[in-house]
Amino acid sequence: MSADIHSDDHEPALQPSTLADERTAARGNGTSESAPVDTAELFDRVLVVTDGEATGRVAVAAGIDLAAAHGATVDALYVVDTTEHWDMAVERRERTGETAVEAAETRGERAGVDVEKWFRYGTAHEEAIDFAETHDADVIIVGSARRTGLDRLVNPETLPVRLQRGASCPVMVVGTDDE
């Protein structure tokens, strides 16, 4: 079935797109079912942004599981927040970060996944986005906790929201199980 559409006598005839027909032919059987997609190696690099808290541990677990399923490498990133220039606070954050990325490496070893440990200094969302672009991350995984009304007012833009808005790759947000 083909219909010619003319706007006036001097315009060439427009044909309906054959893209749908090409998709159907590519499927092979003319039905709406698509061929199975091999997702075994969909991801090569998984960036996990950890914070040393329960949300970070959940993100690490999800990242390791995803990497194991796809044969990927995990980059465990901890960003030391340097917005406060108080030396003791930065030192404490460094120790927390060391513990967090070491735990990610240990979990990766148990699952047979290569985990590379990374530290950055600065603002978490900016450093994570820059890292993802520089290291060609296929997906970013970050944890998010349930927030109260007051916390939503005080901190309206969380790390996951900022990552989703600024990253050029998909961002997976995982939550802690509050049961």
Give a verbal description of the structure:
The chain is built from six helices and five strands. The chain is α/β, with parallel strands linked by helices and 179 residues long. Strands 3-2-1-4-5 form a five-stranded parallel β-sheet, with helices on both faces. The protein is globular, with a radius of gyration of 23 Å. Mean pLDDT is 79; it is low at 1-32.
- Rounded mean pLDDT score: 79
Basic shape? globular
Q: What share of residues are in beta strands?
A: 15-25%
Quaternary organization: single chain
Order of secondary-structure elements = HEHEHEHEHHE
First-residue to last-residue Cα separation? 58 Å
Low-confidence spans = 1-32
Q: What is the overall number of helices?
A: 6
Task: Give the fraction of residues assigned to helices.
Answer: 40-55%
Number of strands: 5
Radius of gyration: 23 Å
SSE class: alpha/beta
Strand order of the largest sheet: 3-2-1-4-5
Taking the sheet with the most strands, its summary is: 5 strands, parallel
